[in-house]
Amino acid sequence: MRRGFTKPTLALTALCFLVLTISSGESTAAVYKDDIGRTVQIPSHPRRIVSLAPSITETLFALGLDREIVGVTDFCNYPEAALSKFPRSAG
After folding, report:
1. Domain count of the chain?
2. Of 3, 18, 51, 84, whose CA is between 20 and 30 Å from 10?
3. Over 50: is that where the pLDDT of 12 sits?
4. Can you say how many angstroms the Cα of residue 34 is from the centroid of all Cα atoms in its chain?
């Protein structure tokens, strides 16, 4: 019985896609169509990154992309610089 994709598999796939997108030298945007027919346009060089998992956050910092990271989850606490990327409530 096949269960489909697991969360770590999807996270790794998203990270690989992000790295490939950043490292490509093309200046045009990539256009993809998802399984339900929506068209998604990805710029050749993302200017802002929101990390949704601690492991991805650590990898992004290791790749030197800390300036592009604009948001992380409250579980992303390493490296210490990731703490400054978490949006704190004003109250």
Report:
1. 1
2. 84
3. yes
4. 17
Residue 14's domain spans which residues? 7-85
Summarize pLDDT for 29-64 with one digit per residue, the tens: 888 898 899 998 887 777 889 999 999 999 999 999
- How far, in Å, CA of 56 to CA of 11, rounded? 8
**Matching residue, tokens 């945007």:** 29
Q: Residue 17 falls within a domain, yes or no?
A: yes
The whole-angstrom separation of Cα 90 and Cα 84 is: 14
Q: What is the DSSP string of 21-78?
A: HHH----SPEEEE-TTS-EEEE-SS-S-EE--SHHHHHHHHHTT-TTTEEE--TT---
Q: Is 2 helix (H, G, I), strand (E, B) or coil?
A: coil
